[in-house]
């Protein structure tokens, strides 16, 4: 039996989607606005989310049409996340429209509470956050005993309408107003973190422990796989901006980009970005097709793309010289997004260990 090779090219529909998302984000997320919002107490732009999630219908890309969504897939969601990474847009797309939505889709959608919540997330009217630490990888979940205690460093909890809480009894949905939130100061000011205090919170049980655990793993796996596309978008912006700057910036009456040492650095970075694109696209395609190798594709993508995004952002800051070190230049936003994402949904080391296990290599001594 011949296996079909994954299709890593973008379709015409995907390119059209990219153009529409890029146009919207270019209009709504210029650098002064992004910096001003990063310094405020409301890092997310509700009007941008309304336009992106509800008006364009992107919040429901992963949701089947019968449940109120667009009936698209992970490849299309990956394109959206590439553009979000390219603009470091302050929206809860990864946490609500990917991780929380995929978790709910892993449950029995014939259950009225599940179907209603999926439809609300797909419409963009409400957002959800999975109440696990943002560093949590797909394969190391240890559900808490019940609806009590504190969940540390939950991404987007402070802006979510509902929380999905995995426990030893099963997966609960809890209205965010039922929990006490302690906002944290994250490295990436465009993606808020908070500790969630659940003592006394009331919730609705959506699934038992086994089904809930499987659904949460599905959500985290999709999140890790598509986070690679966001990291790709960060790396592509950094490479493009660095090449443009070194072409225009002159020293000794020559563009600094013409010096051989810098040519080599940018050529190496270009090779890394191209490879990252292949890895991210492979992960998105594997998730979209339900490939049995999806776990391996996601682990490879995360292990590689997280490093490339950080390297691209570091080169962007350094090769912009003194300009790259200023608050007014957006390079630091990309470095912070890349560095925080490197430790999200499982570290690169955890994903490398997963790759070794999945291909049957011995683990570390």
From TrEMBL:
Keyword Oxidoreductase: yes
Ranges of residues in domain Acyl-CoA dehydrogenase/oxidase N-terminal: 11-103
InterPro entries the UniProt entry points to: AcylCo_DH-like_C (IPR036250), AcylCo_DH/oxidase_C (IPR009075), AcylCoA_DH/ox_N (IPR013786), AcylCoA_DH/ox_N_sf (IPR037069), AcylCoA_DH/oxidase_NM_dom_sf (IPR009100)
Keywords of the record: FAD, Flavoprotein, Oxidoreductase
Domain Acyl-CoA dehydrogenase/oxidase C-terminal: 211-357
Requisite cofactors: FAD
Signal peptide: none
Residue ranges the record marks as coiled coil: none
UniProt record similarity statement: Belongs to the acyl-CoA dehydrogenase family.
Alphabetical list of PANTHER family matching this protein: ACYL-COA DEHYDROGENASE, ACYL-COA DEHYDROGENASE FADE28
Record-given protein name: Acyl-CoA dehydrogenase family protein
Species of the source: Streptomyces crystallinus
């Amino acid at each position: 039996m011949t296996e079909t090779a994954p299709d890593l090219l973008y379709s015409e529909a995907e390119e059209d989607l990219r153009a529409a998302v890029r146009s919207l984000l270019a209009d709504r997320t210029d650098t002064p606005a992004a910096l001003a919002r990063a310094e405020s107490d409301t890092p997310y732009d509700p009007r941008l989310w309304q336009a992106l999630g509800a008006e364009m219908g992107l919040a429901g890309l992963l949701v089947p049409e019968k449940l109120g969504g667009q009936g698209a897939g992970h490849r299309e969601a990956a394109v959206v996340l590439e553009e979000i990474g390219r603009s470091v847009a302050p929206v809860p797309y990864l946490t609500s429209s990917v991780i929380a939505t995929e978790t709910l889709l892993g449950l029995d959608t014939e259950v009225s509470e599940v179907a209603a919540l999926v439809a609300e997330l797909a419409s963009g009217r409400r957002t959800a956050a999975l109440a696990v630490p943002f560093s949590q990888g797909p394969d190391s979940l240890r559900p808490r005993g019940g609806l009590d205690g504190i969940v540390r460093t939950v991404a987007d909890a402070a802006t979510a309408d509902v929380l999905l809480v995995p426990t030893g009894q099963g997966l609960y949905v809890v209205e965010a107003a039922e929990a006490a939130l302690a906002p944290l100061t994250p490295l990436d000011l465009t993606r808020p973190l908070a500790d969630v205090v659940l003592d006394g919170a009331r919730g609705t049980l959506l699934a038992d422990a086994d089904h809930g655990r499987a659904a949460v793993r599905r959500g985290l796996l999709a999140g890790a796989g598509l986070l690679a596309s966001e990291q790709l978008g960060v790396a592509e912006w950094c490479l493009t901006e660095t090449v443009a700057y070194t072409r225009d910036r002159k020293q000794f009456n020559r563009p600094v980009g013409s010096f051989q040492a810098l040519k080599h650095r940018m050529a190496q970075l270009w090779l890394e970005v191209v490879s990252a694109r292949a890895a991210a696209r492979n992960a998105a395609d594997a998730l979209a097709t339900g490939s049995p190798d999806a776990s391996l594709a996601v682990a490879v993508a995360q292990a590689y793309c997280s490093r490339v995004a950080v390297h691209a952002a570091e080169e962007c800051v350094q090769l912009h010289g003194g300009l790259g070190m200023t608050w007014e230049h957006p390079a630091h936003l990309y470095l912070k997004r890349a560095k925080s994402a490197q430790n999200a949904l499982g570290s690169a080391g955890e994903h490398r260990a997963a790759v070794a296990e999945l291909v049957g290599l011995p683990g570390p001594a």
